[in-house]
Amino acid sequence: MEKSDLRQRAKDLAIKIFSICDNIDTKKGRGVLVNQIIRSSTSIGANLHEANYGASKADFINKLQISLKECYETEYWIDMLQSAGCITDDIKSELLQDCGVIRRMLVKSITTAKGKN
């Protein structure tokens, strides 16, 4: 149940970021930020999806860890978008809250998969 919820939250975050990025004027040199946050946010869910088809337990854990790294990277790009004036403080807070939930779920999943309950 939790893994499914985790995958759905990752997908929802990526879709939310797509919607927000649609409103950012990339002609002002902010296209790099938009591209980076789209890549990192979609990579969270992509690696979760790949984890389900891991060749081994180690491969499964590795994909979860990559998802976690991408979540941290997404938080960085959220901060950059706000610092560059592309998003408001409220949007930043909402996105960081979503990332935080996903991050905590990933940490718990990795810990469980490693057998360190």
Structure summary:
With 117 residues, the protein is mainly alpha-helical. It has helices at 2-21, 31-51, 57-83, 89-113. The protein is elongated, with a radius of gyration of 15 Å.
Shape: elongated
- What percentage of residues falls in helices of 4 or more residues? over 70%
> What kind of sheet is the major sheet?
none
Poorly predicted regions: none
Radius of gyration, CA atoms, in whole angstroms: 15 Å
Give the mean pLDDT: 94
SSE blueprint and pairings:
Blueprint: H1 2-21, H2 31-51, H3 57-83, H4 89-113
Helix pairs in contact: 1-2, 1-4, 2-3, 3-4
What does this structure look like?
The protein is an all-alpha fold and 117 residues long. Helices cover 79% and strands 0% of the residues. The chain contains four helices and no strands. Helix 1 (2-21) runs antiparallel to helix 2, helix 1 runs antiparallel to helix 4 (89-113) and helix 2 packs antiparallel against helix 3 (57-83). The longest helix is centred in the middle third of the chain and has 27 residues, at 57-83. The mean pLDDT is 94.
